[in-house]
């Protein structure tokens, strides 16, 4: 079955836009928090699981049919997502929002290469050219904030490792979502990711309690906005789009996060960043138009 069939009544682009805006808030909330990055990530995911738990019973027949192979792949996907949160969120302690999110632009390249190796997926020359345009735009957004020494370099390296981890997560998700619903996949991926972060926090001897009410509010906002309306939406979209295309739309995060950081954190926005943002959007639009014309990923489960 081609993914152009069974498209939702609401255009996919609407859900993509919602997801991009939602994940753009992630770095803002993290910057507002003073809790350790691993603690923020752990509670963000656990709160998401709690919100999803009342609906889990509807999916018990599907859960009972999951085989060991899919459980293992889901676990690895969850571990990769947990590592992404751990490294990327920690990077924001050392570098700017623009710099950290700009490094995330490497994600679609990694997913494109991984998709070719794992699934034999190919793309057009137009799509590759569009990807280059978008990545140049995203890198230009954070270029003035890149540093090659000190804490800023440490933050950039952490963001890079987190980007590799989320690429692994996206590729595994594309494979698993062929026969697993978005709800079940997301619930257990979030749970495995939270478990990884819980173990890390135990070894790091991080405090699990004693945080002021403001911090718990930030944890909850992270669960609702970038996790449910961001990561869950992207997991659901894997039924209708290739992982490469979804990763390309995530390139909108540097632009969204930079603009939000300007409004909410007082970080500067230059004319170069605004022009780079326009270049990024043009590149993403061209890529999606070209890449999604080809035969889509075969998915059967909503």
TrEMBL record:
The keyword GTP-binding does not apply. Residues 14-141, 154-288 form the EamA domain. It comes from Paenibacillus aestuarii. Pfam families: EamA (PF00892). This is DMT family transporter. Keywords: Membrane, Transmembrane, Transmembrane helix. It is found in: Endomembrane system. The keyword Transmembrane helix applies. It is a multi-pass membrane protein. Belongs to the EamA transporter family. The chain crosses the membrane at residues 12-32, 38-59, 71-89, 101-120, 127-146, 152-172, 184-204, 216-234, 246-265, 271-288. It comes from the Bacteria.
């Amino acid at each position: 079955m081609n993914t152009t069939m069974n498209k939702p009544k609401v255009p996919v682009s609407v859900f993509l836009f919602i997801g991009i805006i939602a994940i753009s808030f992630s770095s803002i909330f993290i910057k507002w928090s003073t809790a350790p990055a691993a603690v923020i990530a752990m509670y963000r995911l656990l709160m998401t699981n709690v919100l999803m738990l009342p609906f889990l019973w509807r999916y018990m027949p599907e859960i009972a049919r999951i085989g060991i192979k899919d459980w293992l792949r889901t676990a690895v996907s969850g571990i990769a997502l947990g590592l992404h949160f751990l490294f990327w969120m920690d990077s924001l302690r050392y570098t700017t929002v623009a710099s950290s999110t700009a490094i995330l632009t490497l994600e679609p390249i990694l997913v494109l290469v991984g998709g070719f190796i794992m699934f034999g997926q190919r793309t057009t020359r137009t799509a590759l050219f569009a990807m280059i345009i978008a990545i140049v735009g995203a890198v230009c957004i954070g270029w003035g904030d890149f540093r090659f020494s000190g804490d800023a370099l440490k933050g950039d390296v952490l963001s890079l490792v987190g980007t590799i981890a989320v690429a692994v997560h996206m590729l595994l998700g594309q494979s698993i979502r062929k026969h697993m619903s978005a709800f079940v996949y997301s619930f257990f991926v979030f749970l495995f990711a939270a478990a990884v972060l819980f173990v890390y926090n135990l070894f790091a001897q991080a405090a699990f309690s004693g945080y002021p009410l403001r911090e718990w509010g930030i944890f909850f906002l992270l669960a609702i906005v970038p996790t449910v309306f961001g990561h869950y939406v992207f997991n659901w979209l894997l039924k209708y789009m290739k992982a490469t295309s979804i990763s390309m739309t995530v390139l909108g995060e540097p632009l969204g996060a930079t603009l939000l950081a300007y409004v909410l954190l007082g970080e500067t926005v230059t004319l170069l960043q605004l022009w780079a943002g326009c270049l990024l959007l043009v590149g993403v639009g061209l890529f999606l138009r070209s890449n999604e014309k080809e035969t889509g990923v075969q998915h059967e489960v909503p």
